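Dear colleague,

Following up on Tuesday's group meeting, I ran the structure prediction for the four-component complex that the binding team flagged. I've pasted the input sequences exactly as they went in, so you can double-check that nothing got truncated or mislabelled along the way. The structure tokens for the whole assembly follow below. Feel free to forward this to whoever is handling the docking comparison.

Inputs:
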Amino acid sequence: MSAMEHMAFRALADPTRREILMLLKQSDMTIAEVAENFQMTRAAIKKHLTILSDGGLIVTRVEGRARINALEPQGMQHVFDWLSYFDTFWDDRLSALKPAIEEDMK
Amino acid sequence: MSAMEHMAFRALADPTRREILMLLKQSDMTIAEVAENFQMTRAAIKKHLTILSDGGLIVTRVEGRARINALEPQGMQHVFDWLSYFDTFWDDRLSALKPAIEEDMK
DNA sequence: TTGACGTGATACCTTTTGGTATCTATTGAG
DNA sequence: CTCAATAGATACCAAAAGGTATCACGTCAA
């Protein structure tokens, strides 16, 4: 189990961080813009963003004095892979997909 | 966001608990059997199992004086649903599946 | 009934986590 | 240059998390 994988799981454990991810799904934001959506200081939001970054779930690009935070689209990959091992819903989808693939083979 | 969903994410945040889930995927176990796989006390394992249960990821059945812990197959559902919103890999699979479904419709 | 076994529960300790307050550095407008 | 705006860094605090030690409770075998 990679440290990166653990950091991703840890990042997802906090409700505020999950909300931040939902926000960033809508649009990229500076720290201040993210902070506007919560009743806590910018410093606290900054900490959450750092943890999300450590988990590989977001990336930051610099534009002048602004730091734009954006989702890392493939950031969920490790988490998703790990979880899919247990998920029957996922298994059902794969089962449904398999015949279609075999059909394509013909 | 449901409290249940949060408890599931919280349960997954700890490496020991993720290992326990991997163990239970292999076979159902009593608390003592789970504890054999770790270098910590049975009481600590019991706490982890309680948190996993709170998150709906495992269920416990009573057999005499033994408590058998087992995976809750659909326990990952909420977590999986939430994550799938971000996962491009998942989107790719759905995209691949869609033509096959449409083909079935004909 | 008498224990040993498997477990539940509680008190307690240490570390981590989530948060604020505060200070510093860099950028861009005038 | 000056200075407000944006952000990084650190110290500090309260609460939560992870762990141990310990005791109490039901269960099964002898």
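Residues 35 and 44 of chain A are 9 Å apart (CA to CA).

Cheers,
M.
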